[in-house]
Design brief:
single chain; 510 residues; globular; mainly alpha; 30 helices
């Protein structure tokens, strides 16, 4: 049965909110602050959506706000009345003045606008004006980059992202495609375009569909294959591919994320492009970009066929080398009957930049996540087991035993590898997986996602291998499983009971 999302709340208008505040002041003799608080509480109780209302400026003339004035100035400049560069600078300054100090821009991150600033910019037509400015500035790189940066800032708010897709004349998506093909002639501009596309697609299904249907994502995949494509662009382009293959918009009844993954893999060689990028990125020096590539691989590898294609081209071994696996062991496996890569020396040299990355938590987690997705394929399960991935997953947990997200990802990989594979379960026992499970449950007792994966791994290991039951029982697994069920009933009651049952214990439902 399909999931039914909750009915959307009715949107409250600014006029209705202002009227309620004025009524509170006049009829109940409230101060302005009291009147605003009372109106907010009342409309929340009535079930209204206040996301489009500037609550702390109720009754004021929004058109006189500096952001609204700057938006009008930009619209005028786009119509030939004024200087575009000056209008962009004015809008940038007004937005920056309304940016919470805590958001900052350290490390090149995009500042987060306050809700007030986002609403005023949206009502002032900033999105449409910036799109028009980008069209007029295609051959002026510095000004174009500033306009694209402002677009990215505005796209932090959901309603602005909707406006980006619904813009009049040609949509924002079509503009981005034009810039990629013709207007963005330098790498910095292409990177900025890809970054805007990723921001626009977040939690907006319509934008995802238009990015794919317009050919924008296909163009990005083509440009990712260019030998001189900079790493910043590769990371941003991966972000777009990942966005369109992620179902994160709860408003429509269904998502096309899975269809997009199949389409991009089949018609545009997306998984092979990603493997080529993974081979290029020096993960030790560029961990952020490596994480983005691996996260995108995880999303695109949506079915057995895609997983097999990635594996046959050497993708699984590429991921293992990101985790600094033993080269000699991998080469021995690759020279065997699978024959995935013929030039062993070339293979070893190709992945040399990836060594010593398992100690980097984010890279380790991203790589485990990609392998976890690939391990849904029975063929990949066996290849991973032969290549020593069981030992590598255990090693990752040892390196990051205090990081619940890495532990959860490692347990998820182990569970997928062993599912319906009794021979791999036996190897896992030798690799010390039972110890890993018990220690994870003890260390992360308060983390429901870790506890759930630990319950699943326990059940998978003993369901078809009853001889492994003592490994868990002697280590106190029963008490840990019952504690997980009690502490996290929503996540662990079902899997915890199943694990207790397969351990041969009575009263497993208690």
């Amino acid at each position: 049965m399909a999931q039914a999302w909750p009915k959307a709340k009715p949107k409250l208008t600014q006029d209705a909110f202002d009227e309620a505040v004025a009524s509170n002041i006049e009829d109940f003799d409230m101060s302005r602050d009291e009147a605003i608080r009372s109106a907010v509480e009342e409309f929340n109780v009535q079930g209204y959506d206040l996301s489009g209302v500037v609550t702390n400026m109720a009754g004021n003339d929004l058109q006189s706000h500096p952001i609204a004035v700057a938006c009008q100035g930009l619209r005028d400049a786009c119509g030939g009345q004024g200087s575009l560069p000056e209008a962009l600078e004015a809008l940038s300054s007004s937005l920056q003045a309304s940016t919470p100090e805590s958001s900052g821009t350290a490390g090149g991150s995009v500042p987060s606008l306050s809700q007030e600033a986002s609403i005023i910019a949206h009502k002032g037509g900033a999105m449409q004006a910036l799109l028009e400015a980008c069209r007029q500035l295609q051959n002026k790189t510095d000004e174009l980059l500033k306009a694209l940066k402002l677009l990215q800032v505005l796209l932090g708010w959901l309603e602005t992202r909707d406006a980006f897709t619904e813009a009049k004349a040609r949509t924002g998506v079509e503009l981005l495609h034009d810039l990629l093909r013709e207007g963005a002639s330098i790498p910095e501009a292409k990177t900025a375009v890809a970054t805007v596309a990723e921001a626009a697609a977040r939690q907006v299904e319509e934008a995802k569909c238009r990015l794919v249907d317009s050919g924008t994502v296909a163009t990005l995949l083509e440009q990712m294959q260019e030998p001189n494509a900079p790493l910043d662009f590769l990371g941003a382009a991966c972000g777009v591919v990942r966005s369109v293959t992620t179902a994160d918009d709860e408003r429509p009844p269904a998502s096309k994320a899975f269809m997009h993954a199949r389409l991009l893999a089949k018609n545009h060689a997306a998984i092979r492009v990603l493997l080529g990028v993974l081979r290029r990125v020096p993960a030790a020096e560029e961990p952020g970009t490596a994480c983005r590539v691996l996260g995108t691989v995880r999303q695109v590898a949506a079915n057995e066929e895609i997983c097999r294609e990635f594996t046959d081209d050497g993708g699984v071994m590429a991921c293992l080398h990101v985790l600094n696996f033993n080269d000699a062991h991998v080469l021995e496996v690759e020279s065997g009957p699978t024959g995935l890569i013929s030039d062993l020396l070339g293979f070893n040299k190709r992945y040399a930049p990836f060594r010593e990355c398992a100690a980097q938590r984010d890279v380790c987690r991203a790589c485990l996540g990609a392998l976890r997705q690939l391990a849904h394929s029975d063929t990949v399960k066996k290849l991973l087991a032969e290549a020593g991935a069981l030992d590598q997953a255990v090693h990752c947990v040892e390196l990051h035993s205090g990081s619940d997200d890495v532990v959860e990802a490692a347990l998820g990989l182990l569970g997928n590898m062993m599912l319906r594979q009794p021979e791999i379960c036996a190897k896992a026992a030798v690799a010390g997986v039972a110890d890993v499970v018990v220690e994870a449950m003890q260390r992360h007792a308060g983390r429901a996602h870790v506890q759930r994966q630990a319950c699943l791994v326990t059940r998978i290991m003993v369901a078809r291998n009853p001889e492994l039951r003592p490994l868990f029982l002697e280590r106190g697994a029963e008490a840990l499983l019952r504690a997980a069920k009690a502490a996290h009933p929503a996540s662990c009651r079902d899997v915890g009971s199943a694990a207790l049952r397969d351990l041969g214990l009575d009263n497993y439902n208690d």
